[in-house]
Specification:
The complex is a heterodimer. Chain A is 0% helix and 51% strand. Chain A is mainly beta.
Chain lengths: 113, 115
């Protein structure tokens, strides 16, 4: 069965510092991996995805994520956090035999000025 | 704005009433998905369509739930005899025909509160 784990309910970081939001996954075969961000009372906004190829994926708003097959991880990173990055972040996985996304429980990122 | 739209954005209803939500996908997208998100959780898959064909339904989709996409464009999700446990955010997403790697783009959601 496919699953996604986001081990941290909340991540706190000071503005200007690097941030990491963790995600590990379980899926049969090679996965498609996604990161979405959700602002209050809004839908999910796509940030980036890993399909194949380069393990470092760059996305919107300066975010990037690193696919690590041996550790089955897909951590979201940003070199310098902004207060406006404060939101709820979801990691999602999709196996190659299905079209539905399986989401983690989300990590709330709080960036302090 | 050419993104996914959902209507209404908010719905308050009494237990036992029927509700219907609408989703308009991005115009060139032929895949449409419904998810449900409860407080403190990630979205959970409910069902999806390719054009007008409903290709997969989750076990979460009880017989009180029905989804349609009659002309392969907009979709409706109906909940009959609502229960308090149906209170959630209902999210719609669309994507181009999938080779698997296509991104699903989400609408703003419909927040349902069942009293």
């Amino acid at each position: 069965a496919q699953s996604v784990a986001q081990p941290e309910d909340q991540v706190n970081v000071a503005e200007g510092n690097p941030l990491t939001v963790k995600c590990t996954y379980s899926v049969s075969g090679n996965p498609y991996l996604f990161w979405y961000v959700q602002y209050p009372n809004r839908g999910l906004q796509f940030l980036l995805k890993y399909i194949t190829g380069d393990n470092l994926v760059k996305g919107s708003y300066g975010f990037e994520a690193e696919f690590n097959k041996s550790q089955t991880s897909f951590h979201l990173k940003k070199p310098s956090a902004l207060v406006s990055d404060s939101a709820l972040y979801f990691c999602a996985v999709r196996g190659r035999a299905t079209d539905k996304l399986i989401f983690g429980t989300g990590t709330r990122l709080q960036v302090f000025p | 704005d050419t993104g996914v739209s959902q209507d209404p954005r908010h719905k308050i209803t009494k237990r036992g009433q029927n509700v219907t939500f609408r989703c308009d996908p991005i115009s060139e997208h032929n895949r449409l998905y419904w998810y449900r998100q409860t407080l403190g959780q990630g979205p959970e898959f409910l069902t999806y369509f390719q054009n007008e064909a409903q290709l997969e339904k989750s076990r979460l989709l009880s017989d009180r739930f029905s989804a349609e996409r009659p002309k392969g464009s907009f979709s409706t999700l109906e909940i009959q005899r609502t229960e308090q446990g149906d209170s959630a955010m209902y999210l719609c997403a669309s994507s181009p025909q999938s080779g698997g790697q296509e991104t699903q783009y989400f609408g703003p959601g419909t927040r349902l509160l069942v009293l």
